């Protein structure tokens, strides 16, 4: 989805659209051992206003990802819903790329067109949590026997806990 800057200068521009999964899934596929996927085209809304030389963008999106849990490896999905805000400045030739700052969401546009798809994909990638878990507090897999600890408990953990406690008790006894 692209918008001509002239249209924004003429008055507020609203866009609602569904962005295909292709661009986002291409980014995921570049990562080694990736299991994350965008399930369906994701929906985006953006509102663009001209502010002096700049263009102010308010937007939100919702998307759904499928992935393997980082801890227990089971298949899971996650709904993302975020709001975002950009100030886009016209790029001048003298300015360096380094000035770009993701945190304050300052960015540039070049020429007459603003690529809204690029902004939407960037926001989607930024909204993905660093660790993707099937649920909060997922217990993961026992590193010794491979049991999914969300479903059952294995003897390994009991033994380790027991032996740890036993050692501590011994230490205490030796001190007395
Ligand atoms: Zn899990
Ligand atoms: Zn175990």
What this model shows, in words?
Helices cover 27% and strands 34% of the residues. With 176 residues, it is of the alpha+beta class. It folds into 2 domains: 2-127, no CATH class; 139-176. The chain starts with a strand and ends with a helix. Bound molecules: zinc ion (2 copies).
Uncertain stretches of 5 or more adjacent residues: none
Order of helices and strands: EHEHEEEEEEHH
| Main sheet properties | 6 strands, mixed
Radius of gyration: 24 Å
Distance between the termini: 75 Å
Strand portion, in percent? 25-35%
Mean pLDDT: 88
Number of strands: 8
Hetero groups: zinc ion
Shape: elongated
Which key phrases capture this entry?
single chain; 176 residues; alpha+beta; 2 domains; 6-stranded mixed sheet; two-stranded antiparallel sheet; 4 helices; 27% helix; 34% strand; elongated; binds zinc ion
């Amino acid at each position: 989805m692209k918008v001509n800057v002239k249209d924004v200068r003429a008055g507020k521009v609203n866009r609602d659209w569904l962005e295909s999964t292709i661009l986002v899934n291409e980014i995921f596929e570049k990562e080694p051992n990736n299991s994350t996927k965008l399930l369906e085209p994701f929906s985006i809304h953006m509102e663009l206003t001209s502010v002096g030389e700049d263009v102010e963008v308010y937007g939100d999106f919702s998307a759904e990802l499928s992935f393997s849990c980082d801890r227990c490896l089971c298949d899971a999905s996650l709904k993302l819903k975020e709001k975002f805000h950009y100030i886009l400045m016209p790029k001048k030739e003298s300015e360096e790329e380094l000035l770009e700052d993701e945190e304050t969401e300052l960015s540039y546009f070049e020429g007459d067109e603003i690529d809204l798809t690029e902004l939407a994909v960037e926001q989607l990638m930024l909204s993905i949590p660093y660790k993707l878990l099937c649920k909060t507090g997922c217990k993961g897999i026992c590193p010794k026997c491979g049991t999914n600890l969300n479903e059952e408990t294995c003897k390994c953990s009991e033994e380790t806990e027991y032996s740890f406690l036993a050692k501590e008790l011994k230490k205490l006894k030796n001190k007395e």
